[in-house]
Design brief:
Layout: H1 4-26, H2 31-43, H3 45-55
């Protein structure tokens, strides 16, 4: 099965998006903010994931 590097990157981004969406659902942000973040992650997979990681709600924890 020869998927190539593009396929591997796509799977990594997809896994990151699922992780972000799960964390968005679990956050204490308002439902409106959750919906906006989920739409951003779904419509802009890589950019939305990066923006959510940098700017999204943290629930009192720091990334890293």
């Amino acid at each position: 099965m020869n998927m190539g590097y593009n396929g591997i990157w796509a799977l990594l981004i997809l896994a990151g998006d699922f992780w972000a969406i799960i964390n968005i659902f679990q956050s204490s942000a308002s439902n409106e903010k959750k919906l906006i973040w989920i739409i951003a992650v779904v419509l802009l997979p890589l950019l939305g994931l990066i923006l959510w990681y940098l700017l999204g709600p943290r629930n009192g924890r720091t990334p890293g």
